[in-house]
Amino acid sequence: MSQYTIEVGKPWDQSQKQQWLENQSVKRSYQKDVLEPLSSIKQHFTAHHYGALPYEPERYPLWALTTKNWQADAQTVLITGGVHGYETSGVLGALAFAKSHAREYESKFNFIIAPCISPWGYETINRWNPAADDPNRSFAGSGSTPESSQLIAFLRALEVSIDIHFDLHETTDTDNTEFRPAKAARDGVAYEAWQIPDGFYTVTDTSRNQLAFQQAIIDSVKQVTHIAPADEQGRLIGVPILSEGVIEYDKKSLGLCGGLTSGVYTTTTEVYPDSPKVDAENCTAAQVAAICGGLNFLLAK
Questions:
Q1: DSSP 7-26
Q2: Which of 41, 257, 283, 300 has its CA 20 to 30 A from that of 196?
Q3: Is residue 250 scored above 50 in pLDDT?
């Protein structure tokens, strides 16, 4: 049951946001779970310390990896994880791909991998940052949160064209019990629960939906875990299905990380970690399978 009192028409003021922040606590370690594994992966890439979160800069340095032997004539792939810090398999999936699979593809693609964009959110298992802002609604223009603006600045400084983007996410039961009720309370709007899909799905971009690419991702993930079925209205999270396990958003207008680039191929993966059919290892494997499925499709083309 949600702890939030929703007063329609009365968004939170700064004192209420501060009260929310004071109720957050560190529950796991960015240092242990992300920075330490990165230290063993860095040797295979060029590592970039592209910034730090201003909340605690020493605690929350921001790192990205790029292909060491960059090829001017190869397509460039961006992999982002942990835009929503609480979505664990996005972070671990990006790290797992970098550690165990990137070298299989490095003769054909250049990689930019930012495994944990919101480390404060990772540690506190949170969708928002300390200002009660959603980093995954802040990627328009130069970015409106420290999480988005520093990544955008880093990518612009690289001066490369990004062709393919995998943005790794999860849909969890806490979307209904915690995060979406909190958003409704913060914004002073009515809250309606949505049906959480039991299984994996992807979100494509309205202006470049590339359904064959999305379906290749779905087919690859099927080998690892189950795909979310449509609900009784033929929808997932309230959005009409385009094809099996695929819905679309207008990502750029919403300021989503998945709309960050102008590349032809972009997908937001959504793993469901609360299903009784999966475990943490399976969820991470699904993220890796999604990336590999998309890359294999492009290689076959």
A1: -TT----HHHHHHHHHT---
A2: 257
A3: yes
